[in-house]
Amino acid sequence: MSSNAKVMVMFTDGKTTSGIPPAPVAAAARAAGIIIYCIGLTGADGIDVSVLNDWATDPDASHVAVTPDDAELEDLFADLAANISKPGATDIVIDEIVSPDFVITSITSPTKGTAMSVDPNTLQWKIPELGVSGNEGATLEFYIRHTAQDSGTKKVNQSITYSDTEGNSVTFPDPSVTVDCGIIVTPEPCPVPIDFKADGCEDFLTVNLGDTYLESTGRIVELSVTIKNVCPHRRTALGIILTETDCRGTEHTRGIKTITIPAHSFPSCRDIDSEYKCCNTITTV
Predict the structure, then answer these.
(1) Phi and psi of 159, rounded to 5°?
(2) Are 56 and 49 in contact (CB under 8 A)?
(3) pLDDT string in tens for the chain (285-residue length)
(4) Over the range 87-109, which residues count as b (16 or more CB within 10 Å of their CB) and which as e?
(5) Number of C-alpha atoms within 13 angstroms, CB side, residue 187?
(6) HSE toward the beta carbon, residue 247, CA cutoff 13 A
(7) CA distance linking residue 44 with residue 283, whole number of Å
(8) What are the φ/ψ torsions at residue 203 (nearest 5 degrees)?
(9) Nearest to 156 by CA among 175, 181, 140, 179
(10) CB–CB of 188/216 below 8 Å?
């Protein structure tokens, strides 16, 4: 009994004009172990790529080709011939480098094998074996972020290399994305920091931050405090109230935060330096 794979290649536009629905027939063929490749050719009524993806064996990226040119068809059939005569692959290593205009932000766990980030632009995917005992596919998803300053249609990958013990030939998709950098977001300038000091034994201190215009829906106020001569084993309580005065002179409370500074265990009194973020939901009137 031959160990070669059973393969069906369909040239179609995905449009059914007569006869029984093809989807159940394709499903039955796949269940019988037949590998289905769909070559999408645009007909008079266009092409339905979703139907091709439904009929073809998974994963779609390696079993569906839409409107290929002569060179792509030649490469495709070379891959088919190699895969039919050499079923299965072991010790697979795939090195993928994304374009310098992008960086890899995260990699999900692949359906087979393991994947890792080599550097911000490179990942490596290793699969011990694939398709050795029957038809089998594998998928890997990763996310990228555009870091260049120009717009346009850009290819995601700079290069992909594949190797395995059996010397199989593999064709990978060549995705591209359209980047639009037409909208430039200019962040609001940060307010000028205000220095303040409490003299003597003042119980409270009022600090005027001046005309601070909060155009966004929220801001975070950062407060750096040095509390002088705190004695050992004494906790210190600090309260912060943020208010805003509108154009009519009416004062509005915008935020409040209370803080308990833990006691220190040094042998003598000392200064305590602390930093706090308060009032993180400030809105203007």
Answers:
(1) -165, 155
(2) no
(3) 345 567 888 888 888 888 888 899 999 999 888 888 888 888 778 888 999 999 998 878 778 888 767 777 777 777 677 666 656 788 999 999 999 999 999 999 999 999 999 999 999 999 998 877 666 778 899 999 999 888 889 999 999 999 998 887 787 888 889 988 777 666 666 667 777 777 766 777 777 777 766 665 566 677 777 888 888 888 888 888 888 888 888 888 877 888 888 888 888 888 877 666 554 443 333
(4) bbbeebebebbbbebbbbeebee
(5) 5
(6) 3
(7) 58
(8) -80, -25
(9) 175
(10) yes
**Which tokens hold the place of 267?**
């042998």
E strands in the chain: 6-12, 34-40, 64-66, 89-98, 102-107, 114-119, 122-130, 142-146, 152-155, 157-163, 176-179, 221-230, 236-245, 251-261, 270-278
Shortest CA distance to 223 belongs to which of 202, 203, 207, 201?
Answer: 207
- Residue 17's φ and ψ, nearest 5 degrees, are -105, -25
d(CA 285, CA 247) in angstroms, rounded, equals: 9
* Cα–Cα distance measured from residue 87 to residue 153, given in angstroms and rounded to the nearest whole number: 37
Least Cα distance to 53 among 75, 36, 34 occurs for 36
Distance CA 234, CA 230 (A): 7
Tell me the two tokens of residue 236: 């210190």
Structure-block tokens of residue 240: 């912060």
